[in-house]
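User: Okay, second chain of the day. Same drill as before: sequence in, structure tokens out.
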Amino acid sequence: MLSSHKGKSLTIDPLSVWYDFTCYVTGKNTTPPSIYHTIHLEVADGIDLYNFSAGNHQVEDGAHLHLQFLPEDRTLTADDVLFLIDGIETSFNDFGAGNYYSHILNPIEQDHTVLIALREYPVTLTETEGVTYSIGAGTHQVAYGEKFSFSLTLAEGIDPADVHVIANGIEIEPDALRAAVLTYTIDKVISPITVVIEGTGGTTGNIQAGETIRLEIVNCQLSIINSGQAIDVNVYSLTGKHVVSLRGLRGSKTLSLEPGIYLVKAGDKVYKVSVY
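Assistant: Same drill. Structure tokens below.
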């Protein structure tokens, strides 16, 4: 331990190796300065974090941080939630007071990065005329942070150069083209993703005769009419943001929406609509 007296300077001679030094000023009417650590909270789509926001938080050395969270979809359970501290999966309490999941970091003696996410996120490949998916149209569950790859086989007469694949409003480029087969990869799935195919000359999610779902748009109001069995309906913006959830819809429901393009997922089918 090195020390210096009142009115004296402290000199540390050059060292042959690196050291970390902490300087404390002690004496009458002085106290050692507080030490703080940075806790970085990453909260993925589908998680409600109650008592803190995502981002960086400064916590004093030796103190604790009590996190409270739940899946936005209340039908999910603790088994559906991924909780990582510094990249290592960590357990948490199933429920605390108030019926939320909880975890206490205690004591905090260093910086930490905490990630709370769902274990899996849906990737929906919309059914499109003239396109055949290698893994089938519909919704596929993908583990958080994993890659997702799929290929398209185009019907005769469709020029691959005209085809555009849009994932949550952003166009993705093909990995390869072999005999009219286009292969695509989404590098990291960290939220729900809806894939729309454009430029095939066909239609995406076109409502066919005999289907039980009907969509009507008047003055920025979208009416969803289901004349068949009750199904779950979810509405997303073109960027993939979840807008409305209707559970067990049977009959009709009218929604007031901002002007724009939306994706309506009814059961295992997805419809692209323009609201104006």
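DSSP finds no helices and 22 strands in the chain.

User: Thanks, on to the next one.
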